[in-house]
Specification:
Blueprint (H helix, E strand, L loop, with lengths): L2 E3 L2 H6 L4 E4 L3 E2 L2 H11 L4 H4 L1 H5 L10 H16 E3 L3 E11 L9 E14 L2 E12 L7 E10 L2
Parallel strand pairs: 1-4
Antiparallel strand pairs: 2-6, 3-6, 5-8, 6-7, 7-8
């Protein structure tokens, strides 16, 4: 369930708030291959299923940056909905990839608002998104996303 914030004051007051978790998303080879095409990263651990069987993970794995992109857009938009005039992705802090995402695994995002402050004309919020892998303890990615929200 998405958390809705209607104004700057609500975002500022939400620091420390858990945003819950998203639905699970299955990571299939076509998604990984599509990302390889888009980024020109065709390393065999991502796209060659036969060679990857003999590799360190026993299968192909998602690119770390694919996981990061899903955290910062797909999962973040399921966790928080700020009713604003305009919002921009301001960046990220502290990106880590503790565990690989094997093709065929399901992942989801868990969120928490860890910081919010007034900036010129709006609010800057930092949301920590932890990408969990179903059935494992170690997360695939932990990222502090930074967004700026501008209100009327």
């Amino acid at each position: 369930m998405v958390n809705i914030y209607n104004n700057a004051e609500e975002v500022l007051a939400a620091v420390g708030t858990s945003l819950g978790v998203t639905e699970w998303l299955s990571i299939d080879q076509s998604r990984v291959t599509g990302f390889a095409e888009a980024t020109n990263d065709h390393q065999w651990i991502h796209v060659d299923a036969e060679q990857a069987k003999e590799g360190p993970f026993g299968t192909t794995i998602a690119h770390g940056y694919l996981t990061l992109a899903l955290a910062g857009s797909y999962f973040l938009s399921q966790l928080i909905d700020v009713r604003m005039r305009m919002g921009v992705n301001y960046g990220t802090d502290r990106v880590r990839f503790p565990a690989p995402v094997p093709v065929g695994a399901s992942i989801r995002g868990r969120g928490e608002i860890i910081k919010a402050e007034v900036v010129d004309g709006g609010v800057q919020a930092t949301v920590r998104v932890t990408v969990e892998i179903q059935g494992t303890e170690r997360p695939a990615c932990i990222v502090d996303t930074i967004s700026r929200y501008y209100f009327d």
